[in-house]
Amino acid sequence: MSAEKIIFLNQKGGVGKTTTAVNVGSALAQMGKRVLLVDIDSQSNMTSAVSADSRLPGTYEVIVGQCSPRDACQPTPVKNLFAMAGNINLAGLNIELVNEESREFFFKNAIAPIEDDWDYILVDCPPSLGLVTMNAMCWAKYVIIPLQCEYLAMEGLNMLMRTIANIKKSLNPDLAILGILFTMYSKRTKLANDVVEDISSFFPDLVFKTIIPRNVRLSEAPSHGLPINVYDASSAGTKSYQSLAEEVVSRVRK
Ligand SMILES: Nc1ncnc2c1ncn2[C@@H]1O[C@H](COP(=O)(O)OP(=O)(O)OP(=O)(O)O)[C@@H](O)[C@H]1O
Ligand SMILES: [Mg+2]
């Protein structure tokens, strides 16, 4: 069986892409799935959040053919959870690829040899829709869209969904939205409740039932290089990402 291929995508920065990729990945690993987290962001936040080493060959080196994909998979503190590191070289990759033939398919071609090794391959995207992100969109089967419950969330979402629809039409007919995820939710905030209500009524089938609350333990865990289920197993963050992982498993099965 080939891996379920999921990207965490939103062109807006700081909405919880990395937090979600890491903690869904770790929750899936705890359920016994073999999970590879792939960092395609030159900030490499995902890499450090699971104590992987961004000085070792990583996603950039795999994409340009300097390292085999299998050799770029590093263990993490969590059993069954591995990481392909991001590093600063990724920052120049949009420009390096621009004049290449089939420039949208470098990632897909590079990662293909290891797809059968994993149950899930999860890609953490940068906050942009540049060529490297396009490469992830041309490879993936599913998109998870993390969304912060704030003013103008809907505008960014519409634009992103148009982009996804365009890629599906032109370059990757397999691409589908697995779900929209509300993150950093505070139930006492009226605006947050309004945003959840609006977007849920607009996209009732797409919104995940699980809503990720604002939880200080989730923001502390990355500086310890640990996913939330290892850093604080009893936190609200752990419970919410476990519940999201269960939803992900049941949605990909459909
Ligand atoms: N549920 C949460 N509760 C509290 N803090 C959170 C939560 N989710 C994310 N954060 C914090 O918010 C910040 C942004 O989150 P994160 O890095 O996951 O977003 P991102 O979309 O990956 O950002 P970028 O676009 O820069 O890659 C981080 O400091 C993270 O620790
Ligand atoms: Mg990030």
Describe the fold and architecture.
It is a single chain. The protein is α/β, with parallel strands linked by helices. The protein has helices at 17-30, 45-49, 59-63, 93-97, 106-111, 131-139, 153-170, 190-202, 216-220, 228-231, 236-253, and strands spanning 4-8, 35-39, 73-75, 81-84, 120-124, 142-148, 176-183. Strand 6 (142-148), helix 7 and strand 7 (176-183) form a beta-alpha-beta unit. Helix 1 (17-30) packs across helix 11 (236-253). The longest helix is centred in the middle third of the chain and has 18 residues, at 153-170. The two termini are 16 Å apart. The mean pLDDT is 96. Bound molecules: adenosine-5'-triphosphate and magnesium ion.
Compute the gyration radius: what is it?
Answer: 17 Å
- The strands making up the biggest β-sheet line up spatially as 3-4-2-5-1-6-7
**If you consult CATH, what is the topology?**
Rossmann fold
Name of the level-1 CATH class: Alpha Beta
Please, how many helices? 11
Structural class: alpha/beta
| Average pLDDT number | 96
Roughly how many Å apart are the termini?
16 Å
Query: For this structure, what is the CATH homologous superfamily?
Result: P-loop containing nucleotide triphosphate hydrolases
Bound heterogens, unique: adenosine-5'-triphosphate, magnesium ion
Instruction: Give the helix level as a range of percent.
Output: 40-55%
Shape: globular
The major pleated sheet works out as: 7 strands, mixed
